[in-house]
C-alpha cells in the first residue's frame, strides 16, 4: 500500500517525502522491498515458462500423446505400447477410466461417460448462485443415480475393467493460482458417497466467497483482501482434512499447498496492491495532499 501511494506522487514530492518523512531504516526497508519485487518479476519473466515445461517431463517412461478424439487420452510408453483412457467433466466432477491398450474398448468407455454426463445435464441441477442443501442433495442423487445405472449395465467384469474413478475441483485461483482438487475416489457405492462429501465440504468451506463467475482479479470486486485471507484459512484447513479423511498424508497435502502459495505469492501481492490503490482512490484520496497524509498515517 505504501509503495502504491508513493508512486502516485510527482517525482520531486516523492523525493522530498523520502528525505524528510522517512527514517533511514524505513528508506532501507522500502528499497529492499522494491529490489525483491523486481527480482521476482525478472525471475518470473525469464524462468517461469521453462519451469512449466519441465514439469511435463517429470513422469519417466510416459509421454502424453493425442488420440484425436475429445475425451480420449493417449499415453505412449517407451516400450512401444499405446494406452488409452476416457475422461469427461460432469458438473464439478471429472470422471476417468483406467488405462486400456484397446482403442475400441476406450471408445466404449467414453460412450458410458458421455451418457452419465447427459443424464446429469438433463436433470438441470444448477449450483451457480445457490449452495442450499436442496440443490446439493439434488446433485448428489442425480450424479449417483446416473453412475449406478451405467455401471449396472456393464456387469461386474465390465466394472472391474473400466476402473471408473472421479475427483472434484473447487475454485482457489486467487490464493494459489489454480483450483483445489479432492483425492480420486472409486465410483462404487462407498466411493461415490465419500467423494461427493469431500467436494461438498470444500464447497461449503468456500461458501462465504462470491459463488458466481470470477477470476483471480475480479474476485476483489466482491471482497476485501482480509476477508479473502480469512476464507482461505478455513478452506486450506478443510482441504487438508479432506485428504486426511481419504487416508492420504496430511503433511504432504499441506506441503503441496505451501509450495503453490509460495509460487503464487508475487501475483497475490500484486493483486492486493491493485486493490489498495483502487480503494484509496474510491475513498477520496485523489490529490497529492491527501496522498501525503495517507503515507504519513502509515509511517
How would you explain this protein's 3D organization?
This protein is α+β, with helices and mostly antiparallel strands. It is built from ten helices and seven strands. The chain has helices at 2-7, 11-20, 24-55, 103-123, 133-162, 173-176, 189-205, 225-245, 250-282, 288-298, and strands spanning 62-66, 72-77, 82-90, 93-96, 165-170, 180-181, 185-186. Strands 1, 2, 3, 4, 5, 6 and 7 form a seven-stranded antiparallel beta sheet that branches. The longest helix has 33 residues, at 250-282. The chain is elongated and about 80 Å long. The N and C termini lie close together (11 Å). The model is unreliable at 48-65 (pLDDT under 50).
Summed up:
With 299 residues, the protein is α+β, with helices and mostly antiparallel strands.
Order of helices and strands: HHHEEEEHHEHEEHHHH
Helix content: 55-70%
**Cα end-to-end separation:** 11 Å
Low-confidence stretches: 48-65
**Main beta-sheet strand count, sense and barrel state:** 7 strands, antiparallel
Mean pLDDT comes to: 78
Secondary structure tally: strands: 7
Share of β-strand residues? 5-15%
Q: List the total number of helices.
A: 10
Can you tell me the overall shape?
elongated
Radius of gyration from the CA trace? 25 Å
Which class best fits the helix and strand makeup? alpha+beta
Amino acid at each position: 500500500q505504501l509503495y502504491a501511494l508513493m508512486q502516485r506522487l510527482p517525482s520531486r514530492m516523492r523525493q522530498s517525502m523520502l528525505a524528510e518523512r522517512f527514517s533511514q531504516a524505513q528508506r532501507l526497508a522500502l528499497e529492499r522491498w522494491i529490489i525483491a519485487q523486481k527480482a521476482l518479476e525478472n525471475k518470473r519473466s525469464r524462468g517461469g515458462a521453462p519451469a512449466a515445461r519441465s514439469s511435463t517431463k517429470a513422469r519417466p517412461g510416459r509421454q502424453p500423446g493425442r488420440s484425436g478424439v475429445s475425451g480420449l487420452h493417449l499415453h505412449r510408453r517407451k516400450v512401444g505400447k499405446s494406452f488409452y483412457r476416457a475422461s469427461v467433466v460432469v458438473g464439478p466432477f471429472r470422471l476417468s477410466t483406467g488405462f486400456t491398450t484397446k482403442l475400441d474398448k476406450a471408445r466404449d468407455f467414453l460412450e458410458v461417460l458421455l451418457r452419465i454426463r447427459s443424464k446429469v445435464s438433463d436433470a438441470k441441477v444448477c449450483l451457480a448462485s445457490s449452495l442450499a442443501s436442496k440443490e446439493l442433495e439434488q446433485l448428489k442423487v442425480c450424479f449417483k443415480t446416473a453412475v449406478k445405472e451405467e455401471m449396472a449395465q456393464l456387469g461386474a467384469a465390465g466394472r472391474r475393467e473400466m476402473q471408473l474413478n472421479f475427483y472434484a475441483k473447487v475454485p482457489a485461483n486467487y490464493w494459489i493460482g489454480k483450483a483445489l482438487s479432492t483425492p480420486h475416489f472409486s465410483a462404487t457405492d462407498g466411493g461415490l458417497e465419500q467423494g461427493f462429501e469431500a467436494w461438498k465440504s470444500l464447497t461449503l468451506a468456500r461458501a462465504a466467497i462470491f459463488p458466481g463467475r470470477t477470476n483471480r482479479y475480479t474476485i476483489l470486486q466482491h471482497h476485501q483482501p482480509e476477508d479473502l485471507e480469512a476464507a482461505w484459512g478455513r478452506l486450506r484447513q478443510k482441504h487438508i482434512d479432506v485428504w486426511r479423511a481419504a487416508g492420504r498424508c496430511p503433511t504432504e497435502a499441506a506441503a503441496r499447498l505451501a509450495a503453490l502459495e509460495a509460487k503464487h505469492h508475487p501475483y497475490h501481492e500484486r493483486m492486493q496492491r491493485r486493490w489498495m490503490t483502487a480503494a484509496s482512490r474510491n475513498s477520496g484520496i485523489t490529490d497529492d495532499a491527501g496522498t501525503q497524509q495517507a503515507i504519513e498515517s502509515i509511517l
